[in-house]
Amino acid sequence: MLVFAANLLDGFSAVLSPQNLLLAALGVTLGTLVGVLPGIGPALTIALLLPITFNFNDPVGAFILFAGIYAGGMYGGSTTSILLNTPGESASVATAIEGFEMAKRGRGRAALATAAIGSFVAGTIGILALTLIAEPVASLAVKFRAEDYFALTLLAFASVTALTSSSLVRGFVSLSVGLLIGFVGIDQLTGQSRLTFGVDQLGNGVDIVIVAVGLFAVGEALHMASKLRSRPDELVPEDPGGRWLSKKDWRRSWKPWLRGAGIGFPFGALPAGGAEVPTFLSYATEKKLNPDKEWGEGAIEGVAGPEAANNASFSGTLVPLLTLGIPTSATAAIMLAAFQIFDLQPGPELFEKESELVWTLIASLYIGNIMLLALNLPLISLWVKVLKIPRALLYSGILVFGTLGVYSLSGSVTEVLVMYAIGVMGFFMRRYDFPIAPVILGVILGPLMETQARRALTASGDDFSVFFSRPLTVILLIIAVAAFIVPHLPALKKRLAFGEDD
Amino acid sequence: MIGARAFGGVLLAVGVIAFVATLNVGDGWQASGPRLAPAVASALLVVLSAVFLIRPADDELLAHLKESTKDTHWPTPVALVGLLIGYALTLDVFGYALATAIFYWLAAWLLGSRSPVRDFVIAVVLGVVTSYAFSEWLNVQLPNGPWGV
Predict the structure, then answer these.
(1) Within an 8 Å CB–CB cutoff, is residue A167 touching chain B?
(2) Between chains, do B134 and A408 touch, taking CB under 8 Å as contact?
(3) Cα separation, A276 vs A90, whole angstroms
(4) B73–A408 CB contact, under 8 Å
(5) What is the SS3 assignment for A378?
(6) Exposed, middle or buried, A460 (CB in 10 Å: 0-12/13-18/19+)?
(7) Best of B1, B5, B11 to disrupt the A interface by mutation (most A CBs within 10 Å)?
(8) Which residues does chain A have within 8 Å of residue B3's beta carbon, measured at their own beta carbons?
(9) What digits encode the pLDDT tens for the residues A278-303?
(10) Do B38 and A54 lie within an 8 Å CB cutoff?
């Protein structure tokens, strides 16, 4: 324990320089700016802003900027959920239920404050928990073999797909589309090109940024364009309204924050994560424990709990991401891409060889949280003004920046066109209720799953029994099957039916 | 519902094309070879989109479709796709700043903005500033076009 605390302190000392703090402030500001745009959650915020970090020589600076962008994106997302009732991702849906009611009744400031402070409290608890369990998990993960990793990726696929889609068929259609996109390019083991259809630029594969920007940004812009004639711009409030937290609000908020953090972290830490289940679980818990409050008319507990759960669950997601290299949400998948830009492969080895870097990342996530509280909460009137920018200008701008991101990544028009094509697909997926998160996960985890499976099969001489010969592998496979079936048991399905993840 | 079926049909076609394409990969079906994984993924897509085609309508989808397909105005997204393709193709020819300014101005108009003068100013500033910022500060080489911007 002491060793980990010392590691974390080292991380902080690496982060705390004037230049890095400036980067954190810049990241938080940019992240919030993009994150407050309606319908845009942290995953897209990161994908859009990822190209900015490409040209850093030093991963520490990039991670700090990146952590700021992430924290800002989360905060921006909850701002629009509360003020406009347009959650950018399903993890904010629970927040929007009571948050929007509070804003309508002139308590917008209190809702935003309980969300931001709750995120901070939960982030703190989450980081402490991460400090405690990350290294033990990493040292356990060293013993994992290729077949275990294969089973883990299956588990991540099964749980994310089953949890984020209203229909298993559509969820797995999304997943297989993602897998196919992930397999495009030259096979790393044999050098053969697959699914490139003779296009040279596809040889390096389709980057996750191309997929994310296409699906989220272009898909959303096209969706907005198709509805232009029927839907006027939302009325944006002049001012979030009301005062910050009163004494009574504090009293009502602190328990939901702690409970939310307690619910969120374990869910995120399981390789069957995602933030949707814990946020709704926290919402349901608060409702049950405080039945006498004004539910449906702006109960502050309904904002405090889910927001804390959302944030703690993200700290939890870092456990499988950093120790196993397995992302369990769209946001985590894009973070993995950020690691890969710096030739870092998260996993037990990263913990051993680059432990300083890992703890610096963890410390910078925390700094991002603090920066957010210090800078952004007071500036809320400014962010509300961002919401007043006409939709036409906003979405044209998003398209410009999405294009810029992909173009600066590849320097090739072909990849920009591929991104647009994926965007058109994203538009139809949104229209016909195919979930997006499994596509992202398929693109990033598909190649990893294949590599591990082939490694295991090569070692066994193409004998499939390698997947059933060790208890650990078998247990992981059984959990994967359970993750696939359980959310669709009729009794549970009713309680978990809450749309798709963006 | 017709639209959902058509999309299902496109996905089915993609699956079939991908499956056929993977048949040329590698020289056999050995489990550790490069063919198996993409073949399994495309077979999965074929089977699942066929299932979707046969029975697309569950209650959740019908409820979603009612909302998402209501009052669709097709010309705008179609024109926007055209505009995007034009943007991509003019990037190298006109240079980043000019192509971006033109795209932004037209896209803003297409998406319903009716202040062309203001939009024109924003478009030019956006194109020039991002082009300058990315090439000067972030070392990203964006195409200059014949006029060096």
Answers:
(1) yes
(2) yes
(3) 6
(4) no
(5) coil
(6) middle
(7) B11
(8) 431-432
(9) 888 888 888 888 888 788 777 888 88
(10) no
CB contact under 8 A, B104 and A411: no
Among A190, A231, A417, whose Cβ lies nearest the Cβ of B34? A190
Rounded Cα distance between A348 and A120, Å, is: 28
Instruction: Using alpha carbons, select from A161, A208, A217 the residue that is nearest to residue A184.
Output: A208
pLDDT band at A240 (very low <50, low <70, confident <90, very high): low
**Record: contact B104-A400, CB cut-off 8 A:** yes
Which one-letter amino acid corresponds to residue A11? G
Between CA A334 and CA A73 the distance in angstroms is 13
Question: Is the CB of A417 inside 8 Å of chain B's CB atoms?
Answer: yes
Give the 3-state DSSP-derived string for A256-321, with helices as H, strands as E and coil as C.
Answer: HHHHHHHHHHHHHHCCCCCCHHHHHHHHHHHHHHCCCCCCCCCCCHHHHHHHHHHHHHHHHHHHHH
Query: A341 vs A184, which has greater pLDDT?
Result: A184
| Lowest mean pLDDT across A203-207, A498-502, B22-26 | A498-502
DSSP for A438-466, written as a single string: HHHHHHHHHHHHHHHHHHHHHHHTS-GGG
Calculate helix-pair angle for A108-141, A59-84, nearest 10 degrees.
140
Distant-in-sequence, close-in-space partners of A32: CB < 8 Å, separation ≥ 6: A72, A73, A75, A76, A79, A372, A376, A383
Q: What are the tens digits of pLDDT across the range B29-74?
A: 888 888 889 999 999 999 999 999 887 767 777 777 777 777 788 8
User: Which among A17, A62, A346, A403 has a CA at the least distance from the CA of A217?
Assistant: A403
Tell me the three state secondary structure of residue B140.
coil
Beta-carbon separation of B71 and A227 below 8 A: yes
Q: How big is the A-B interface in CB pairs under 8 Å?
A: 197
Is the Cβ of A420 closer than 8 Å to some Cβ of chain B? yes
Please report residues of B whose CB lies closer than 8 A to that of A176.
15, 41-42, 44-45, 48
ipTM of the complex, rounded to two decimals: 0.93
Confidence of residue B124 (pLDDT cuts 50, 70, 90): very high
Q: Which helix (H) or strand (E) holds A186?
A: strand A185-186
Question: Higher-confidence residue: B61 or A150?
Answer: A150
Q: Please, what's the largest Cα pairwise distance for chain A?
A: 68
The answer to whether the Cβ–Cβ distance between B140 and A224 falls below 8 Å is: no
pLDDT at position A500: 37
